[in-house]
Structure formats: C-alpha cells, structure tokens
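Take one record.
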Amino acid sequence: MIRELVAVCVAVFSMSMGAGIVTPIIPLYARSLGASYVEIGLVGAFYAIAYMLLAIPSGKFSDRFGRRVVIAASASLSGVVSILYLLAGNVNHLILIRAIDGAAWTLFWPSIEALTTEISGPSAGKAMGLSTASYGFGSMIGGFLGGLIVTYFGFRATFVLYLALSFVTSLLTVIIQEEGSSKRSFKAMGTSSTQPLTWDKATLVLPCVVSVSYSSVLAIVLTLFPVYAEGLGMETFWIGVMFATFWFGRIISFIIAGRFSDKLGRKAILAPALVGSAVASLLVALSGEIWLLSGAILILGISLGATFPVTIALISDVVPPSSRGIAMGFFEASSGLGMLIGPAVGGVMAEIFDPRYPYFLCMSVSVVCSLVVLTCLRKFAIRTAGFHTVVKSGTQDTRS
C-alpha cells in the first residue's frame, strides 16, 4: 500500500504543479488578448463543460480498462494542450484549448480518486488527505512559479513548463501499480473480491450536491480572482504569492481533514468547512487591502481544502471498488457542473454589477450547501450503515 500510495502522490504532485503554473495565468493571459469579464468566464465555463460531459464515461472506462491507462492518457493529452496554449492567438482559441484541458483533467481525477481509495482500504480519508495534499503542494508551488515566470519570461514560458511536467507524469504511470488493489480493498472491508456487492446509488446525491457547491466556489477563485486582485492594484508576482497562500491553506486542511473525518465522522468536518467557506467568501468581497485579502484567501483555502477529501471518503464509504471509477465520475461530473455555473454566473455578475459580486455568490452557495449537509448527512449515515451490514453478512456467508 505504501509504495503504491507514494507513486500516486508523486504523479498527482507533478500533474498538479503543471496545472498550478498555468491556471492562475490563463485569466491574465486572456485579459492580455483583450478578453472581457464575460469572455474570461467563458474560458472557465468551456473547461467545465468538457469536464462535466466526460467525467462519467472516463470513470466507467477506468473501471473496465484500468486506472493506469486512463491516467497516462490524461498526462499525454495535457502535453498536447500545453503546445496548443503556445500557439493560441486570440480569446476564441483560448476558450477551445481550455475545453481540451478540461477533457485531460476529467480523465485524471476519477481514476486517481478511485485508485487512492482502493489501495487504502478503511483509511480512505487519510489516504485521500495525502493524495490531495500532493495536489495542493503541486498547485501551491506551481502558483508561485507561474507568477515568477510571467514576471521575468512572459506568459508562454509557463506553457513550456506545463509540457515538461505532463511528460514527467506520463513516465510516472509506468511505476504505478494497480493490480490486486481491489482485492485488498474488498478484504479490508471484510468480504471476498469475487462476491458482488450492491450499493444504493441514491447515496451519491449528497456528495454530488457538495461537489457542485465546492467546485463552483473554487472555479470562481481560480478563474476570476486573478483579475479581481489585479483590479485592486496587485502585481502579477503578488497574485502568484496570493495563490500560494491559498494552496498553503488547502494543504494544511487536506492533511488534517481526511484523517480526522475517519475518527470523528464526516459531518464533524464537512459542515464547519462549508460555513468557513461562506465566511471567507464574504471577507474576500469586503477586503480592500492586500493584507486583509491575504487572510481571507487563506481561510478560504483551508475551508475548501477540508471539503474535498472528506467528500471523496463519503463515496468510498458506500461504493465497492469495482464501481468506484464510475462513482467518482458522477462526483467529478457534478464538479464540472459547479465549474460551469460558478465562472459563467460570476463573470456576468462582475461585468454587470461589480467584481465583488461573484464572492457574494460564493457565500450564498456555501451557506445553502452547509444547511443541506446538516439536514441530510444523518440519512446518508443510515444508508452507509446498511451497506456495511451487507458487507458483514457477505463475510459470514463466505466463511460458512
């Protein structure tokens, strides 16, 4: 398990570092090509459309043909995307390329998430915390490097580094081992690998609702915040530092939240995280000075960081390994929906009203989702208990 988890974490780090370099830069790059707030929102929206439409087929494909094949395809496609970014000549090109980038990432996440939970058994929260911490470290370092590279070498240099890191991830898939992971995961749950398990697909509703909320807030930050900060007078370098602060908060939460949710329960972590997201979003909208904005973005990073691994662990609580690819596909499709709604609506609000309004939207979405979690998570726990009852009874039958 340890060797496999390390390999997964290194692959996630490499891939996320490349994305961390270019993601905060894309809105500024679009702005340099003459994009309006609405067009910047479309850049994020087209990424989300591709992500949303392909997530479920991608997860199902990984269930059938293996996680490693799909992860390698994702890294290869990211390499192609980085070359296309270098060739982009206008905003329309950038919108189309961003959609292809969304396709690359929708191949990556369902497979990585399913593989991580499969090799971790009952410690899914802890394992997802480590995997997402690798994602956070890569994104944080990438965010810092992106601002630095643009300051001294220009936008296009960031895409060259994205290409190199995509190639590194492709090489890493050679050492990722997935054979036997499903058997270990079944064994950890207390049943045989050959015994079919049923699971209630209604249990995916709550994680998918959380995913829409979480991803809409995250997408607004990643897509619109660089331009918002630039409008407040921040230089590109300091915007990169701000994103590094955001990812630092997420990393802290990634490591701690998943582990504690295994011990204290998912609700004990998830509900406070959503409330924290609402408060931090309000602070971002009201902060007029850089130091206040830095504190608000740090709190937002911590809150969003806690949400992701705990929600993945919720899914692993009730879905057997043989179906986790498609289950993660549903989760990521919901994430794509949030990534579509957030930048599209936020971009229109910023254009028509004020650049602060997208963060009022983030606050509202987080409040509503926290109320849903507080209301519905007990029912989810009852369904989870029923699933594990099936597992235990299957174990007794196997031994008899």
